[in-house]
Write a structure and sequence with these properties.
The protein is an alpha+beta fold and 727 residues long. The chain has four domains: 190 residues, Hypothetical protein af1432; 144 residues, Beta Polymerase, domain 2 (2-Layer Sandwich); 169 residues, no CATH class; 75 residues, Alpha-Beta Plaits (2-Layer Sandwich). 49% of the residues lie in helices and 15% in strands. The chain is built from 28 helices and 19 strands. Helix 2 packs parallel to helix 4 and helix 20 crosses helix 22. The longest helix has 35 residues.
């Protein structure tokens, strides 16, 4: 067993103290004993895998705790050893690291996707507490990908897809470039083995001629730097196979037409030298317009810094050149692992560490606002895509956002409260729609209002995970609050028949019912009533004390029928009782009172409410065709009326028949605007060569407002008839 430890020992002897080496060796013996009955698919002892993971991490000079956790990372998941035992022997920090990497194998989930999402959620949350959790997991995944050949083909493809979708973007976000490139190529080979084989063979065939081109360009750049008196180490290489495949797929090109597979890296001593070398290579080969990127002045989100340019090389071949300092090279290849400082937090000043911490803060916020694991993972995936856009705040500060971001994404990136109160935006000092995609170099200013709130329509165009998570969280909480308020109104309406109200109910009686229903608080009960999951009349019945003489249930059924009749429309139940208390509709109830699209009721229309489980109350007109179909569910209908002063704009559909004439649509639209209406949607259909029908959805305040608006439209000369659509 001891020879297995020699490889790791040779690495850690170079930088750990003897007592620390002994502690790592002790962890190896503990792990080997725990996994002694287990073997890998290859037939090797299982301990060889965690030992290989620890060796890879030792090559990056990780600390003792991380190496021990790497050796023990599968112990909790695959053996009877508990987290507490690891904490007792090796310390709580090691136990937390191991637990953070462990999958949730002992909990039953409704689906495999949910289980995987919950495991990822747990690991990401552990990463927020200690980034080493993710570094262990990434290294674990790297070794598993290197030894994936022993798995079944279907399992290979599933693991490869997960690697490309989740672990590669995380490695990129953490700046682990070398690890990202290897994971990409290993994932590509496992997911598309035939494509990988064909592409490797094509590259080999073309390699002889291409190696000659690489050597020629490398020599030319070296000679030009020497002539200019500039110092720099030039390294030429071919672009790695997965990036070639991605370009072929993205642009629909065959391999023979992918020319820019040549990349050169120039390592210099200082930032000043980097810009001077850039000028020299631009004098040597002409730069391709629009292909220069300055990631030194504006680093990438993961802290990466370099100058990128594309040149017209010999034979017209595009050549990519990257120029960076030795420190930037170190960060580009190893990311946060390049200068990992565990005890003191001294690394906080580094660009990579600061940016990774900012991303982790966003991950934590997304976790707090997500409804479930699948939604959380969706938001994290959205946030992991590497392409960015760089914009400025009004004070000249640079903000890095995902490409395609809008002013709303920008507002949430500044601060959650700014996003929630956003009402408008200026781009380069000009007002612009909130859904406008931002471009590099633009200056963005957000206009807020104290009483503003997120609009559900924003979810149709925001692209960042932080914006999406915050909007969804706000809307969920808003709907919950509105449901509680509506539930209290409905229950108070019902309790009025007993001459009481929610506020007047004895606390013991409320607590008893909550206990029966297994609810923790009264608000949960009110929310259920407001959302239509429980009927107010039945809840009120259970809240009231049992009446004498009600043993046979006759009196109970009589009271229930009487109570139900108070809420039922007369056309469903018969004559209403004297105690009828209709629900008054104000127009400001929010998301728990919805207005049916089939009949589009507006203030002034006779209306009824239909209780829909999970959605609250849907308001229909009494003449709606769907009302007749629902007569078989009388218990779902409740009596409703409009308040005397209803607020808000209500959509209504009208049909306008017109004579075909130039400008008729604009004339009708102008008349609607003049009358204070707003057009939501319009569709124009030609009936014959002379006549057309315009179907319009118009926002109005009331039935009287609609009548005035239709009267105005009828005065337009080409208009033949105006009708309100009744569904």
């Amino acid at each position: 067993m001891e020879p297995l430890f020699d490889g790791l020992r040779s690495e850690i002897d170079n930088y750990l103290e003897p007592e620390q080496v002994d502690l790592v060796h002790r962890a190896f013996l503990f792990g080997a004993a725990s996994h002694k009955e287990q073997k890998r698919k290859s037939g090797e002892l299982y301990i060889t895998h965690p030992l290989a993971v620890a060796t890879l991490m030792a090559q990056m000079r990780f600390d003792t705790e991380t190496l021990i956790a790497a050796i023990l990372h599968d112990v909790i998941e695959d053996t009877p050893v508990a987290k507490e035992e690891i904490g007792t022997i090796f310390g709580n920090d090691v136990a937390e690291l191991v637990d953070g990497v462990t999958k949730l194998t002992k909990i039953n989930f409704e689906s495999k996707a949910e289980a995987e999402a919950e495991s990822m959620r747990k690991m990401l949350m552990a990463m927020v507490r200690d980034l080493r959790v993710m570094l262990i997991k990434l290294t674990d995944r790297l070794h598993n990908m290197r030894t994936l050949g022993y798995m079944r083909p279907d399992k290979r493809r599933r693991i490869a897809r997960e690697t490309l979708d989740i672990y590669v973007p995380i490695a990129n976000r953490l700046g682990l470039n070398a690890m990202r490139l290897e994971l990409e190529d290993l994932g590509f080979a496992a997911l598309y083995p035939e494509r990988h084989r064909v592409l490797v063979e094509a590259i080999k065939k073309a390699r002889g001629n291409r190696r000659e081109i690489v050597e020629k360009i490398e020599c030319a750049i070296g000679e030009r730097l020497e002539q200019e008196g500039l110092s720099g180490r030039v390294h030429g290489r071919e672009k790695h196979i997965y990036s070639i495949y991605q370009k072929m797929r993205r642009k629909g090109l065959p391999f023979s037409e992918v020319h820019d597979v040549y990349a050169f890296r120039i390592i210099v001593d200082s930032v000043d030298m980097a810009y001077r070398v850039l000028g020299a290579v631009h004098n040597l080969y002409k730069p391709v317009p629009g292909k220069f990127k300055d990631y030194i002045a504006i680093p990438k989100a993961n802290g990466y810094q370099s100058l990128h340019t594309v040149l017209f090389g010999p034979f017209g071949v595009p050549v990519e050149v990257q120029i960076r300092t030795a420190e930037m090279e170190k960060v580009a290849e190893a990311g946060v692992a390049a200068h990992w400082l565990y005890k003191t937090g001294e690394g906080s000043g580094y660009g990579t560490h600061a940016r990774v911490r900012e991303w982790m803060r966003n991950v934590l916020e997304m976790q707090q606002n997500a409804g479930d694991s699948l939604e959380f993972l969706e938001n994290v995936k959205i946030d992991l895509f590497p392409r960015e856009v760089y914009v400025f705040t009004p004070k000249g500060e640079i903000m890095v956002l995902k490409r395609g971001s809008t002013p709303v994404d920008f507002a949430y990136a500044v601060h959650t409260a700014i996003g929630n109160r956003c009402v408008a935006a200026k781009i380069d000092r000009k007002l612009a729609p909130l859904r406008t995609p931002l471009m590099n170099g633009q200056t963005v200013e957000v206009i807020t209002a104290g009483n503003a709130s997120p609009n559900p329509a924003w979810l149709n165009f925001v692209v960042t995970g932080k914006a999406r998570a915050n909007i969804r969280s706000y809307l969920k909480n808003l709907k919950r609050d509105e449901a509680v308020q509506l539930g209290e109104r409905l229950l108070n309406n019902e309790l009025a028949g007993y001459s009481t109200s929610v506020a007047q109910l004895p606390a013991q009686r409320v607590a008893a019912l909550l206990g029966e229903l297994k609810l923790e608080a009264l608000d949960q009960l009110l929310e259920d009533v407001g959302l239509g999951n429980r009927m107010a009349v039945l809840v009120a019945r259970r809240l009231m004390p049992k009446q004498d003489g009600d043993d046979d249930g006759v009196e109970s059924r009589r009271r229930l029928k009487k109570a139900l009749s108070r809420y039922m429309p007369s056309w469903l139940w018969g004559e209403k009782t004297d105690t009828a208390r209709p629900l008054m509709i104000k127009g400001t109830e929010g998301m728990v009172v919805n207005f049916a699209r089939c009949c589009r009721p507006i203030p002034g229309d006779p209306i009824v409410g239909f209780v829909t489980s999970g959605r609250g109350i849907v308001i229909h007109t009494e003449t709606c065709k769907n009302v007749a179909e629902y007569r078989k569910l009388p218990e779902k209908w409740i009596e409703t009326q409009w308040e005397d002063e209803v607020k808000g704009d209500f959509p209504v559909e009208i049909r306008v028949e017109v004579i075909n004439q130039r400008g008729v649509l604009a004339t009708v639209a102008a008349a609607i605007a003049e009358m204070g209406g707003n057009i939501d949607n319009v569709n124009m259909e030609e009936r014959d060569g002379r006549h057309s029908t315009m179907t319009m959805v118009v926002e109005v305040h009331s039935r009287q407002h609609l009548a005035n608006l239709m009267r105005k439209i009828r005065t337009i000369e080409p208009v033949l008839r105006v009708l309100r659509s009744r569904g």
